[in-house]
Amino acid sequence: MDELSPQSLIKGSLEIFSLPDIYFQIAEMIADPRYTAIDLGNVIAKDPGLSIRLLKIVNSSFYGFQAKVDTISRAITIVGVEDLKNLVLATSVIDKFSKISVELVDMTDFWMSSVRCGVVAKLLAKKSSVLHCERLFLAGLLHDIGSLVMYNKIPAESQEILQAANYDRQIVAVIEQQVLGFTHADIGFELIKSWGLPESLFEAVGCHLEPELSLVHRLDAHLLNLAFRLTNSLQQGMLLEEMLSEFTDEYLQLMRLDRSMIAEVVELTDDEFSQVFELMMPSKRFH
Fold first, then answer.
1. Residue 254 contacts by C-beta under 8 Å, 6 or more apart in sequence?
2. What gap in Å lies between CA 226 and CA 217, rounded to an integer?
3. pTM
4. For the chain, how many structural domains are there in total?
5. Tens digits of per-residue pLDDT, 190-223?
C-alpha cells in the first residue's frame, strides 16, 4: 500500500484518464487570436454529439437567451470562449468517464450527484456575487472525479472503504485517509492539474473537504465545500432546518452568505438540476 499515491494512480493510467484531443485543440485555438468563432465552430462540428449538446445547453434556460441559437459559431459569440471551453470540458469528461464500467458505482447516480453539486456550487457563487460563477459549476461537476480513478485502479480497496463508510460520502474521505494516506480529493487535484486546467479549479477540488487548507482560491474552496455538504444532505433527505443548523455564522460569512440565501439556493436546485442533467448527459449512454 506504501507505494500508492495520487500521482502514481494517475501516472499509470494517462491513456484512460486523459482528456480528448478536441478539448486541447479548442483551448489552443482560444489562446490564439488568429482563430475566429467560425473556426472554433468548424472544429466542434466534427463531433456531432458534442455539437448537439452544446446547442441544447446554450438554448436552455441555463443561459436564458431569448432568440434561438442555431449555429455553434453564434453560440460561441453569445456564450464567450471561456464558457465554451468549460462546456466542452464538462461534456468531454462525462463522455470519457462514463465509459468506465465498474461494479462499485452506478454511473448515472454518480453523475446525478456531481451535476447537482455543480448546480448548487454555481447558485451559491451567484448569491455570493462571484464573477464568472460558471467555473464553480465545473468545480462541482469534477469534485468527486478522483473517486472514479480509485474505482478503476484500486477496486478492492475502494469497495472496502465504501462499505466501512456505509457509502456516506463525508465519512468515505476519513476512511480513505486512514487506509491509503490520501483521499479522492487529492487524486482529483492531481488529475485536474495534469490536464493543465486553471489553479482555481484544481485547488478548489483538492481542498473541497478541508477548504481551510486552500492557499490562494479560498472562496472557491469554501463554496465548493458548502455545495458538497448541501448536496450530501439533500441526498440523505435531511430537512432544510437541520441542514442550516450545521453551518456556523463565521463559516457562512467567509462566503458572504446567510441562511436565507442558502434556503433560496436549495429551493432553486431541483429545477435547474433536472434541466442541466438532461442536457449534459450523452443520450443513450446509460441505457
1. 218, 219, 222
2. 15
3. 0.87
4. 1
5. 999 998 888 999 999 999 999 999 999 999 999 9
